[in-house]
Amino acid sequence: MHDWPADEQFCPRYHHAVELIGKRWTGVVLRALLSGHQRYADIRRAVPGLSDTMLSERLRELEAENIVVRHVLAGPPTRVEYRLTDKGQALNRAVAAIAEWAEEWVPAP
Amino acid sequence: MHDWPADEQFCPRYHHAVELIGKRWTGVVLRALLSGHQRYADIRRAVPGLSDTMLSERLRELEAENIVVRHVLAGPPTRVEYRLTDKGQALNRAVAAIAEWAEEWVPAP
Fold this sequence. Notes:
2 copies of one chain form a homodimer. By secondary structure, chain A is mainly α.
């Protein structure tokens, strides 16, 4: 159990991280990537309700954050893959902790 | 290390949880609460840049999610405290994991 000191200072890095992970659709895209999905079409299939526009935008943002790297594989057909960087893989623990909390505390919809 | 099966199904409870925690300002308010801040004024002071309107709204949302309980203490002066429920306390691990990732991977602003 992490112990928070009561006088802990505000941390802008944490602030950035939590809102990056929790941005609309980003959390579920990250979980799909951590589950091993790399191909654009597979990620899309893993997240029902997510539009192409939104998925592309989120992947671009994750690329800008150096969380995924985009690879274009020569075809035909040309394939686009998104691979987690070390920084992206390191999100595994945070995503797992949120998932475990959700399983215990969030009622099924 | 949590191992994600490649065929893991989409989880609406995780989806709800990650976007709840990552909603604008919610993550930092949660961290302030987990650090032991309970009084409205203390929470506000712990989060620079957060307006009264936004803090009230976020606390109401956390109350609706049964993550905090609002207590009004008889005065004078009347004091309002927000105490984490068991569900709220259980977020400690997820918040700590995000903070640790941020410390390691997010550059200082």
